[in-house]
């Protein structure tokens, strides 16, 4: 489908700095992953643009922090209303540049709008406390203040949800922002920033950079003492690099990194429900999600039934251009698709058997067949191995103890899942899973009021929920002598 033919216009392709759209140091081409065709030339920033964006954010910070919470909330509500009015443009932009099917883009849009609304509602509910010191004699007063100008670095896999989840919390907390979009999905971020500006957000509060050399932004800004916070979603490798870059300046850092999501199906589970949720959890966004079901761990008693039904449904998934009615779109890039040839070799060399899929599609665009690889039992090849692809691996296990042990054999700790009809078992297992999130009889967990995040290699801090806003606040304590 031709974007222009749909009657929907392309968002801004420039950088947004200090209240105006500005050109970059040059441009880079943006491609549609569904057919490889060029969509637009995007402004490419360098270190001077990054500094200009931080200058603007630092100048705007005191005024934005001082603004009454109700006034900030009103602006965010206006942003939310405008966002809703522009729903069709958001959905089409996301599908165009990220490849995800329109139905998924629509779901992401609705969820993102709900996140912005939730953050708007929280703006006037940031509370402090007043209590007595433990031995009496003085009072303990706490209050919360915005941490300061923030750098938000977003990935391409959920181009709208990621900027809303970060910027929504930062703005609600009273912080100004410099967002660096993912190179592959700049337009969705541009449309969101444009929406905030049209809603009346003051100059300098929301700035936006695009670049093919992200290190120019991070190396410049993380060394600048005015930057007080970085919030990043992406790979563990880059997360670790950002921690090192911010170390000298002790930059407050939140990291939402990768995962190797164990998806446990116990012997008493509703197998049909588990199959449906495994499909959603694994093949949504062509498997390019940090919370995707990476290792499907099934009690041997029900594994043949589960695998038969799962493979049948996976082989029926319709793959194609996200603008058409399909279940699975393309991978984000040729690079992401091409690495899967090695992945399949790695899995089969380790004893995995391909039950369906396993190949790239012979057509323009970066498509890979929805794939299921079965192992005979737990296998270390998939521990610490984030597939980020439409490839599911299935491992039969001998009961809940082995399921738990295999699930916890991981340096990651983001999302995990348990399917069982026994709630006591589910809670016991949920408590022992070394993961930041546990879905019990459900494969999708994102929700504005819930703290999203992981342990170990999966990151530091939480996004959304009350915790998500406090990531952008400092706690101040005042000792008050009374009488
Ligand atoms: P990445 O970590 O390289 O990119 C994520 C974001 O970080 C992008 O905006 C990118 O421009 C930026 N970035 C990269 N290097 C940077 C630097 N030196 N300084 C500042 N920003 C920098 O991830 P990718 O290459 O796009 O994808 C590779 C892998 O990362 C995936 O296969 C997956 O494992 C993981 N990933 C995870 C998530 C997630 O949701 N947690 C999202 C995207 C990618």
What does this structure look like?
It is a single chain. With 483 residues, the chain is α/β, with parallel strands linked by helices. The chain has 2 domains: 255 residues, 3-Layer(aba) Sandwich (Aldehyde Dehydrogenase, Chain A, domain 1); 180 residues, Aldehyde Dehydrogenase, Chain A, domain 2 (3-Layer(aba) Sandwich), CATH 3.40.309. The chain is 38% helix and 20% strand. It contains 14 helices and 20 strands. The strands form 5 sheets. It has a 7-stranded mixed β-sheet, sandwiched between helices. It has a 6-stranded mixed β-sheet with strand order 9-8-7-10-11-19, sandwiched between helices. α2 packs antiparallel against α4, α3 runs antiparallel to α6 and α4 runs parallel beside α5. The longest helix is centred in the N-terminal third of the chain and has 21 residues. The chain is globular. The model has no long low-confidence stretch (mean pLDDT 96). Belongs to the aldehyde dehydrogenase family. This is Succinate-semialdehyde dehydrogenase/glutarate-semialdehyde dehydrogenase. Keywords: Oxidoreductase.
